[in-house]
Amino acid sequence: MQEFGAVLDLLALLASDLRMPVLLALLVVASVSDWRSYRIPNWLTFGGALFAVVYGTLAARTPVAGAMNAFGGLIVGFAAMLIFYAIGIMGAGDVKLMAMAGAFLGPQQTLMAVLFTFIAGGVAALAFAIHRRRLGPMLDNVRAAAQGMVMSTIAGVRPNESLRVSRSVGKLPYGICIGAGTTAQVLAHQLGYV
User: Fold this and answer.
1) Which of 80, 52, 49 is CA-nearest to residue 66?
2) Gyration radius of the chain over CA positions
3) How far apart are the first and last CA of the chain?
4) Is residue 116 in a domain?
5) Which residue has the higher pLDDT, 147 or 157?
6) Are 182 and 27 in contact (CB under 8 A)?
7) How many CA atoms lie within 13 A of 77 on its CB side?
């Protein structure tokens, strides 16, 4: 019975707060675009982030708190994905998409959305590698990237081109993982699980 009440609360939130339906719609469009063309359009990420910042600022009790929450989430989403772009295992569109989602969610929820996204990405990468019979090379790439990141951190230097994957096992449209992970986090948060 408690779950039914949580579902009703979720439906009420979707009906009363425009941010969540807009975020979910943008994530669906980004996922479809990434699936079809391996690209997430800038109009979607920048337009979505602008909407989230403006709406969050105007809908908050105090505009400053709303703006800080939106910008904080944007920065957290951007920063969490930037290292993966820097070492060449994620595209710029993925970084911008997570930053956009962060602008809707705020900093705390964005951290959880990033975690859910990484879990969705890991499951998708394993399924993708198993389907293509490339699990061994994928695990070798993960090991090499992790070793390179640890060594760069210990030595106190920036990661360089040697961290790039040696043998690609194929492209994974990570926008789908961001969409799935963020949606799962939003639903889990609204249902009171996180």
Assistant:
1) 52
2) 18
3) 19
4) yes
5) 147
6) yes
7) 32
Who contacts 16 (Cβ-Cβ below 8 Å, separation ≥6)?
Answer: none
CA dihedral 80, 83, 88, 92 (to 10 degrees): 50
**Domain assignment of residue 60, yes or no:** yes
Mean pLDDT of 135-155: 75
Task: Determine contact, residues 22/48, Cβ cutoff 8 Å.
Answer: yes
Q: Which domain holds residue 59?
A: 2-132+170-190
Q: What does DSSP assign to residue 173?
A: -
Question: What does the block give as tokens for 57?
Answer: 């600022």
Among residues 84, 98, 78, the alpha carbon closest in space to that of 34 is found at 98
pTM (global) more than 0.85: no
Report which secondary-structure segment, H or E, holds 47.
helix 42-59
For residue 47, being part of any structural domain is answered with yes
Whether residue 57 contacts residue 86, with contact meaning beta carbons closer than 8 Å, is answered with no
> How many residues are recorded in the chain?
194
CB distance 84 to 117 below 8 Å: no
